[in-house]
Amino acid sequence: MLKETNAENGSRHILLCLSGSISAYKAASLASALVKDGHEVQCAATESALQFIGPAALEGITRKPLKKELFAESSEIEHIELARWADLILLYPASAATIARLRAGLAEDLVSAIFLANNFQSPYWIAPAMNSRMLEHPATQENINILMKWGARIIETETGTLACGETGTGRLVEPETIHAMIKELFG
Q1: Edge-to-edge strand order for the sheet containing 13-18?
Q2: CA-angle at 11, arms to 8 and 13, nearest 5°
Q3: Which domains does the chain possess?
Q4: How far apart are CA 12 and CA 35, in angstroms?
Q5: What is the CA radius of gyration of the chain?
Q6: Are 13 and 87 in contact (CB under 8 A)?
Q7: Among 88, 49, 51, 94, residue whose Cα is nearest residue 67
Q8: Which of 2, 83, 143, 170 is paired with 19 by a 20 to 30 Å CA distance?
Q9: How far apart are CA 116 and CA 24, in angstroms?
């Protein structure tokens, strides 16, 4: 069920969350496509995500300051307000560590606190990105299954060459693919 926010003009509020993965650069391409579609995109990132992509790229594309602090100096309770604001929350890329934190209910950073503040009235999508061995590990698979039971949609990874040089599953879905999925969601 989608909120009515901005639906009259086709524009939606999309909260694009990033966690630590070498594939975080793909979030910039996705954000750009969504902004070109007329959506309002707000990015939030873990500290580990910022090891792979700088805030300036995301801020320049979205024209909004990157959200990264759980305890930001603000009159708002940011994780609650962001979860309320979003018509879609997309964790892209989702590392194994972040997926585990979400499943455990640990609100150690802004991204995981947003997950706990989400009531699933708006879609929450998770796009994993990691080495095949990490993805196939029983702990990761159990975490993913629990998150799906709670209402999150897990976006299937692609198969291909991984950052480590191996070939296998765990590759982050391409921005064009997820962009098409979002277009379909909002019709």
Answers
A1: 40-45, 13-18, 88-94, 124-128, 153-154
A2: 120
A3: 7-186 (3.40.50.1950)
A4: 10
A5: 15
A6: yes
A7: 49
A8: 2
A9: 22
3-state class (DSSP) for residue 75 = coil
Amino acid at 105: G
List Cβ neighbours of 139 (8 Å cut-off, separation of 6 or more). Answer: 100
d(CA 73, CA 80): 15
Q: Which of 72, 77, 148, 164 is catalytic?
A: 164
Beta partners for residue 160, in sequence order: 168
3-class DSSP assignment, residue 91: strand
Nearby residues of 81 by Cβ (< 8 Å), 6 or more positions away: none
For residues 157 and 69, give the distance between their C-alpha atoms in angstroms, rounded to a whole number.
Answer: 28
Question: pTM of whole model > 0.85?
Answer: yes
Give the tens place of pLDDT for each residue, 105-125: 999 999 999 999 998 889 999
Look up 164 and say whether it is catalytic: yes
Q: Which of 91, 115, 111, 85 is nearest to 103 (CA)?
A: 115
Q: For residue range 31-56, what is the model confidence (pLDDT) as tens digits?
A: 999 999 999 999 999 999 999 999 99
DSSP 108-155: -SHHHHHHHH--SSS-EEEEE---HHHHHSHHHHHHHHHHHHHTPEEP
**Distance of alpha carbon 81 from alpha carbon 25, whole angstroms:** 26
The Cα 36–Cα 165 span in angstroms is: 33
